[in-house]
Specification:
alpha+beta; nine-stranded antiparallel beta sheet; globular; metal-binding; signal; iron; Deferrochelatase; oxidoreductase
């Protein structure tokens, strides 16, 4: 048993090197390619773990999500750093379709627990990406990080109408696992939680299906559970200059450890689907400001046509109403602010009253939430006619550091330096 543990600790403290020996060529290739356009050749192939930016942000959105928020339970900085190294080593293996540990499900000492839980044995990588973020609460006085908290990681304000549940909001660290196979995503999060036992505990988690946005022009726009196309004007990985302006933290933004990273906002938005399903088609389309079939803005014919907010209907009133979702969320009415969305639908059973507990798990990345998500959401929260049918019940804000350049790096290294 002691030999088993010593080998495992050596694996974790090897700065991910042992886990990624076979990924050296992948790491080298990722450094010379344009990091914003790298993607898997097919849905079963692996996505590169290395590059200027973390995978799972502009990566073409996969079909499934397992998102988890952790609270750090250790009060020792060295143990937290060691966990980041162990997690990175495991992640580098998992995204290649390998087992989390060097000994695997059936290797190692029979009397000890396996190094992998085993439910993904025989499954391909399925485009798995693992993206880490650090919450505001990590920057308290436990680990000496208060002076490194980014100004952009300011606590989100209270938005009108939100009904947040503290137990499923916030957290010290988050990991977003996206894959085309739900079992692969669940397997990855399960093994990170297993490795973190005694140092972190799961605060809350969320499963998602049916991506609700496209992050590449090669993808069709998907639909949310209200039946409307979602994220038509989303930032795309091909928009390199827009991504530089709107998504990636620049060197001038500070702090240095976040350069090349991005800020993630998560919101669990429950939809009152039974009420929505009894609403007339005309009212539904007026609320969104779009045709429900093709997704075109009111008065236009195609999904990607530019909305005409000055157009009037036969009654002399705005064709796209002043409280329509598309008007309130559009960049032209928000000082040009844009987000990169990669949210997911969810159905978490029923609420015991015969109503589906369903909706949207909203995920959005941006350069500075104070200038992007906060003003847009405040505008929506105050006047969006869609608010009658939705309820925000969970919220999270996370600083996602840049990607790892090679197998000698680990999650958060610059933060803990």
């Amino acid at each position: 048993m002691s030999d088993r543990m010593s080998r495992r600790k050596l694996f974790g403290l090897g700065a991910a090197g042992a886990a990624a020996v076979g990924a050296g060529a992948v790491a080298t290739r990722a450094l010379v390619e344009e990091p914003t356009v790298a993607h898997a050749a097919s849905i079963s192939d692996p996505v590169s773990f290395y590059g200027e930016h973390q995978a799972g942000i502009v990566t073409p959105a996969q079909d499934r999500l397992h998102f988890v928020s952790f609270d750090v339970t250790t009060d020792k900085r060295a143990e937290l750093v060691e966990l980041m190294q162990e997690w990175t080593a495991a992640a580098a293996r998992l995204v290649q379709g390998k087992e989390a540990g060097t000994f695997g499900t059936v290797g190692g000492v029979p009397e000890a627990a396996p190094d992998d839980t085993g439910e993904a044995l025989g499954l391909p990588a399925s485009g798995l990406t693992l993206t880490i973020g650090f919450g505001p609460s990590l920057f308290d006085d436990r680990f000496g990080l208060a002076g490194k908290r980014p100004a952009a990681l300011a606590d989100l304000p209270k938005f009108p109408g939100e009904q947040l549940i503290p137990e499923i909001s916030g957290g010290d660290i988050c990991v977003q696992a996206c894959a085309h196979d739900p079992q692969v995503a669940v397997h990855a999060i399960r093994n990170l939680a297993r490795i973190g036992f005694g140092k972190v505990s799961v605060r809350w988690s969320q499963l998602g299906f049916g991506r609700t946005s496209s992050t590449s022009r090669a993808q069709a726009t998907p639909r949310n559970l209200m039946g409307f196309k979602d994220g038509t004007n989303n930032l795309k990985l091909e928009d390199v200059e827009l991504l530089r302006q709107q998504l990636w933290v620049g060197a001038q933004d500070g702090p240095a450890w976040m350069t090349g990273g991005s800020y993630m906002v998560t919101r669990k938005i429950r939809m009152m689907v039974e009420t929505w399903d009894r609403t007339s088609l005309g009212e539904q389309e007026a609320i969104f400001g779009r045709d429900k079939g093709v997704g075109a803005p009111m008065g236009k014919k195609a999904e990607f046509d530019t909305p005409d907010f000055a157009a009037k209907g036969g009654d002399g009133l705005p064709l796209i109403k002043n409280d329509a979702h598309v008007r309130l969320a559009h960049p032209t009415t928000n000082g040009g602010a844009r987000l990169l969305r990669r949210g997911y639908n969810f159905v978490d059973g029923s609420d015991g009253l015969g109503r589906l507990d369903a909706g949207l798990f909203f995920i959005a990345y941006q350069r500075d939430p104070r200038k992007q998500f906060v003003p847009v959401q405040m505008r929506l929260a105050k006047t969006d006619s869609l608010n009658e049918y939705i309820k925000h019940i969970s919220s999270g804000l996370w600083a996602c550091p840049p990607g790892m350049r090679d197998a000698g790096d680990y999650w958060g290294r610059a933060l803990f330096a």
